[in-house]
Each structure stands twice: as structure tokens, then as C-alpha cells.
Design goal:
- The protein is mostly helical.
- The protein has one domain: Sodium/glucose cotransporter (Up-down Bundle).
- Helices cover about 65% and strands about 0% of the residues.
- It is globular.
- It starts with a helix and ends with a helix.
């Protein structure tokens, strides 16, 4: 008992209740912004608008949003290092400990080192099949693989719903939380400005602008976050000091007869008890791999970056670079979150609902302010403004990726389903107008985000992902590796997985997790069956249904699977049957800036044809063409021979031996580093 009291520090009593009073309002200690900080923010926005229209991209930045900085650091503050395993594993994560604080990593949050393994699987396994198939969206691949249109339409609509109500809402909420605390701007004004600026250079530049802007903002995010990490470690006494002070980071005001205020004893371990752990190690290794596979290998936002590579070697190199970058969030986001808890236990680690309400406006806890609090307290003038720009960069980078991928999905998989003969110009206009629609929906969603408490919002987002992603993972794995899978099997497998996932989701929302100190009356299937275990079970059940139904139906002819599976990806192009292009765009009809791998956007001039001079047009028409990404030159119809040559170029998965060996060696080195880190922190 005496040791526990000593660990709790001065003012502890025998019943575990601290007698001192925490500050009632954290805003009193807020550090204001200097003129230099504001100047940095303004210069950043001007630079992004001036340069972002032309510059491109990284898998890391597509996966990192403001939710990563806010949520991942907050979860690290609440539960320790284990959430870094989420970041090393996937894109979206949730830790279900006593506090119920959740993070988006991918860890958008969480998700989230299987990220390393799955990024390499993307470059070495999935992308070769996608390129060989000549697709630009994931629903389009499923249509080519199985035929029919119901799976394609279902996947497109499901993806758009997830983008609007989970990814966009998460980034907006996290960015607004940071802006409110750091800048004191009006929530609607600041978020609206960010969305408008993001939409402008997404609309004006297309995928190329998003890709190059992502690369620029990756450098900003990594550089600024590393500076804050070193300042934080210096202040806390480096890693040994963090271990000591984090374990003693107990708020002055606690809830009687509970242990919610105590830091977890396994906070510095990645692998935790399979039954009582908040993140059980079997779920972290196996269950999270299911979600990570969906995130990194089948999600349009991520895969589109690889499909825009110049060649398969470029795509592999991008996966290797992304794998190296995904190692960093454990050190420059999770650990700074823990440092913030160690330095500000009364604010970041508050547990009393009334105290938390006065500090951050949320009764469930304030761990989500861990990163902004550290920025505003430790960063010097100028660098503080840089870090604000970093968070804004994360928000805008993630939103640009989502806006662009959503417009591609809508134009190709939804709009062309109804307008089968839509021209390239029509697809460009529809895709970019849809970006405007997304912005409007996002702004209308802000009041709901503001009225939701932070823990419940992240809980909702991660629950939706966990219950919808496993069936998609099972479908893509079987589609690529099992030639016997048929369209009825795939469709009814998706439907059965969706039904089981919705049932669990309804139960979880009907029986919310209790707050600290309350009795847990939830059914055993909820409180004793971790959601990561459920994800693994759901993936297995979906796979079983797909296989059984497929075996009971007529198999797909072998010749129709050419270049659509892992086993047939190298079949000669001459064996391809001429596809009826109903619902599937010609290569020449793909919107500019959104072409698949193998050379990016093809130039008609390379085929030896001269472009006729465009007629003079009014300023209004020129502005409209600029908005829609139209060159103004008349479209040129390609001959059958030219189409065949272009298709062969865009679907080639051949590699130069030198660069193939370079990528393979770097992949092995990356896996070795990854295994060492898991062993060290396990």
C-alpha cells in the first residue's frame, strides 16, 4: 500500500482519491500565438495554393490525417505504447480500455508493423494484379473479375458512405479540435476555410496535384513532429524519464473506488494479455491484419496512389518508402502523447466528468488534447506556427486524397453506370462537381461532429469500419487467389458478412460501454468478445459463405480470368477477350490525372498525331475549362491498333532487373527493422 501511495505522489489518500484540486479551466494556462506564428500559418497556406496545384505524393500522407495527430497521441496518453502497434498495423484503430478513448491511425489513425507487411503485400501482390487487369478503381476490378454490376455498385456506394461519414468527419473533428484550442477561431469559419482551400487545389489539379502536394506536406509533418518529439523528450528526461513520470501521471481529482486514473501497468508493452488486455495480442497480430489488409490493399484512397505510378517498380518503391515512414508515428506521435500525459496529468489525464468538462468540453476525458497541449506549451515562437501548419497539412492532405478518390469512384463506377457513353469531358466535370458536393456535405456534418462527444464519435467511426471491412478483405483475397470463386458466391458472401456485422453494430450501439465507475451491464458477446476477435471471425465466416456458394454454382470459364488473378497475371495480352465496355471505361475515357499505372496519363502526341489548334474562346469558357481540368483541344478517337498499344503499355507489369533487385533488397531490410522493433517493444 505504501508503495502505491508513493507512486501516486503527494496528496494521495488511502482510498485512492487525491485531495488537491485540479485547475478548473485549462484555458487560463494557454499559450497565445505570436505574430511570427501567425505569419508561418499564412505563408504556409499561400505556398500550398501556389505550389500545391502542380506538385505529388506519398502513401504515408494519404494515410495520415489530423485524426492521427489528435487521436493517436490521445490514445497513447490514455493507454501507452500498444496503439503504436495499431499504427504499425493498419489505418484505423480503436483501443477499448477503461477510458474508451479511440484513435484513427493506419492508424488514419491507426490505420494503424503489419502496415509494413501489408504495404509490401500491396506492392508485390495486389498492385501487379490490378495493373495487369487494367483497372483504376477497386469496384471496377470486382466487375471485371466477376462480371455483373451489383457488386461494383454496392462497393462504390459503400465506399462513398464510408468516406463521407467516417474519414471526412474524423479529420474535420480532429482538425477543428486543434484549431479551437490553438487558435481560438470560430469552428465553422475555420473548418469551412480549410475545406474550401482543400477543394480548390483538388479541383484545379486533379490526382497529380494531390500526389505532389501530399509529398510536400509529408515533409512538413515529419519535420515538425520530429522537432516536437525531441523537445518533449528533453523536457521529460528522455525515455527513462518518460517511463518513470508516465507511471506517476495521476490527476489530482479522481473518481472514488476506481482505477481509471491509474496509468496501465503494461503501458510500455505492445503485446498484452489475450483476455484482460485492452488490446489483446492475438487480436493485434491477427484480427488487425484483416482490417489492415482492407486499408492498405483494397481501399481506393491508398491503392489509387500505387496505381498512378509510372511502373510496377515505382509502385514497389512507394510501398517501401511508405513502410519506412509508417515506423515513425510510434516515436513522433504516440510517445509525445505519453509525454503530454506525464507533463500535464491534471488536464490530459483527467477522469472526473465535471473537471474534464471544464478543461476540454468533453465529460468522457481530455486525452485528445494531448498533442495540441504539447504544441502550445513546448514549441517556441515560429515553430509553434509551423506545428499548427503541420496539423492543417495533415487535415488537408487526407481530405484531398479522399475528395479525389471519391470523385473517381463516383464518375467511373456510379455515373458511368447510368451514362454508359459519357465522354471524357463529361466524366471530368461530373467528378469535380462531386467534390463540391462532398464539401457541402462535410460542412453540413460539422454540427453533428460538434454535438458528439469525442470518445463516442471515434467509437462510432471505428465500429463502422470494423464491422464493414472484414467481408471486403475476404472477398478480395479470394478473388485474387482463388479462381473458383464466382459472382453469386462473392455477392452472397458480402451480404452475409454485412448482415452479421450490422447485427453486432446494433448490439454495441444499443448497449454502450459504461463510464468509469459504472457497472457493465452489457451482454457477454460485447464486453468479453473483443472487436478485433470479431473482425477475424467475420472475415472467416464471409470466406466460408463465398466458397460454399461458389462451389454450388457454375465456375467462371478459365479464359475470362486472364490477367485478373495472381495465377493469371502474366498471361499474354493477346489472350484477353474483347470486353463489352458496358459500365467499364475505355482507357481513353479515364479522367485526366487519374490513369492507372504504366505511364500515367497517356499523351496522344506520342502516337504520332498532331493536335489541331484550339479555337479562341471567351474568358468564361476558359475559366470553366480550367475548373473542369479540360485542355480545350478536341478529343481524338484512337484507332484499334493505337488502343491496343496504349492498353499494352498501361497494363504492363514488366520490371527492369536492376530496380527489381533494389526494391527486393529494400523490402527485406524493411522487414528486418520491423521485426526488431516488434521484438524490442513487445
Amino acid at each position: 500500500m505504501s508503495k502505491e501511495l508513493a507512486a501516486m505522489g503527494p496528496g494521495a489518500s488511502g482510498d485512492g482519491v487525491r485531495t488537491e484540486t485540479a485547475p478548473s479551466v485549462a484555458q487560463d494556462s494557454r499559450v497565445g500565438l505570436h505574430a511570427y506564428d501567425i505569419s508561418v500559418v499564412v505563408i504556409y497556406f499561400v505556398f500550398v495554393l501556389a505550389v500545391g496545384i502542380w506538385i505529388g505524393a506519398s502513401l504515408m500522407s494519404s494515410n495520415v490525417g489530423s485524426g492521427l495527430f489528435i487521436g493517436l497521441a490521445g490514445t497513447g496518453a490514455a493507454g501507452g505504447l500498444a496503439v503504436g502497434g495499431f499504427e504499425w498495423n493498419m489505418r484505423k484503430s480503436r483501443s477499448g480500455g477503461d477510458r474508451g478513448i479511440h484513435a484513427r491511425s493506419c492508424g488514419k489513425t491507426g490505420v494503424r508493423s503489419q502496415a509494413t507487411w501489408l504495404l509490401l503485400a500491396l506492392g508485390w501482390v495486389f498492385v501487379p494484379v490490378y495493373i495487369a487487369a487494367g483497372v483504376v478503381t477497386m469496384p471496377q476490378y470486382l466487375k471485371k473479375r466477376f462480371g455483373g454490376q451489383r457488386i461494383q455498385v454496392y462497393m462504390s456506394v459503400l465506399s462513398l458512405i464510408l468516406y463521407i461519414f467516417t474519414k471526412i468527419s474524423t479529420d474535420i473533428f480532429s482538425g477543428a479540435l486543434f484549431i479551437q484550442m490553438a487558435l481560438g477561431w470560430n469552428l465553422y469559419l475555420s473548418t469551412g476555410i480549410l475545406l474550401v482551400v482543400t477543394a480548390i487545389y483538388t479541383i484545379a489539379g486533379g490526382l497529380t496535384a494531390v500526389i505532389y502536394t501530399d509529398a510536400l506536406q509529408t515533409a512538413i509533418m515529419v519535420g515538425g513532429a520530429l522537432v516536437l518529439m525531441f523537445l518533449g523528450f528533453q523536457d521529460v528526461g528522455w525515455y527513462p524519464g518518460l517511463e518513470q513520470r508516465y507511471r506517476q501521471a495521476i490527476p489530482n481529482v479522481t473518481v472514488p473506488n476506481t482505477t481509471c486514473h491509474l496509468p496501465r501497468p503494461d503501458a510500455f508493452h505492445l503485446l498484452r494479455d489475450p483476455v484482460s488486455g485492452d488490446i489483446p495480442w492475438p487480436g493485434l497480430i491477427f484480427g488487425l491484419t484483416v482490417l489492415a489488409t482492407w486499408c492498405w490493399c483494397t481501399d481506393q484512397v491508398i491503392v489509387q496512389r500505387s496505381l498512378s505510378a509510372k511502373s510496377l517498380s515505382h509502385a514497389k518503391g512507394g510501398s517501401v518508402l511508405g513502410g519506412y515512414l509508417k515506423i515513425l508515428p510510434m516515436f513522433f506521435i504516440v510517445m509525445p502523447g505519453m509525454i503530454s500525459r506525464a507533463l500535464f496529468p491534471d488536464e490530459v489525464g483527467c477522469v472526473d466528468p465535471d473537471v474534464c468538462q471544464s478543461i476540454c468540453g468533453a465529460r468522457v476525458g481530455c486525452s485528445n488534447i494531448a498533442y495540441p497541449k504539447l504544441v502550445m506549451t513546448l514549441m517556441p515562437v515560429g515553430l509553434r506556427g509551423l506545428m499548427i501548419a503541420v496539423i492543417m497539412a495533415a487535415l488537408m492532405s487526407s481530405l484531398t486524397s479522399i475528395f479525389n478518390s471519391s470523385s473517381t469512384l463516383f464518375a467511373i463506377d456510379v455515373w458511368q453506370h447510368f451514362r454508359r457513353k459519357a465522354t471524357e469531358q463529361e466524366l471530368m466535370v461530373v467528378g469535380r462537381v462531386f467534390v463540391v458536393f462532398l464539401v457541402v456535405i462535410s460542412i453540413l456534418w460539422i454540427p453533428i461532429i460538434q454535438s458528439s462527444n469525442s470518445g463516442q464519435l471515434f467509437d462510432y467511426i471505428q465500429a463502422v469500419t470494423s464491422y464493414l471491412a472484414p467481408p471486403i478483405t475476404a472477398l478480395f483475397l479470394l478473388a485474387i487467389f482463388c479462381k473458383r470463386v464466382t459472382e453469386p458466391g462473392a455477392f452472397w458472401g458480402l451480404m452475409s458478412g454485412l448482415g452479421v456485422g450490422l447485427l453486432r453494430m446494433i448490439l454495441e450501439f444499443s448497449y454502450p460501454a459504461p463510464a468509469c465507475g459504472e457497472v457493465d451491464w452489457r451482454p457477454a458477446v460485447l464486453k468479453d468478445f473483443h472487436y478485433l476477435y470479431f473482425a477475424l471471425l467475420l472475415c472467416g465466416l464471409t470466406a466460408i459463405v463465398i466458397v460454399i456458394v461458389s462451389l454450388c454454382t457454375t465456375p467462371i470459364p478459365e479464359e475470362q480470368l486472364t490477367r485478373l488473378t495472381w495465377w493469371t497475371r502474366n498471361c499474354p495480352l493477346s489472350e484477353l477477350e474483347k470486353e463489352a465496355h458496358e459500365g467499364t471505361p475505355e482507357i481513353s475515357e479515364i479522367p485526366a490525372g487519374q490513369c492507372p499505372a504504366g505511364g500515367g496519363a497517356a499523351e496522344n502526341s506520342s502516337l504520332g498525331q498532331e493536335q489541331p489548334e484550339a479555337p479562341s474562346r471567351s474568358w468564361g469558357k476558359l475559366l470553366w475549362s480550367c475548373f473542369c481540368g479540360l485542355s480545350g483541344a478536341p478529343e481524338q478517337a484512337l484507332s484499334p491498333a493505337e488502343k491496343a498499344a496504349l492498353e499494352q503499355k498501361l497494363t504492363s507489369i514488366e520490371e527492369e532487373p536492376l530496380w527489381r533487385h533494389v526494391c527486393n533488397i529494400n523490402a527485406v531490410l524493411l522487414l528486418a527493422i520491423n521485426i526488431f522493433l516488434w521484438g524490442y517493444f513487445a
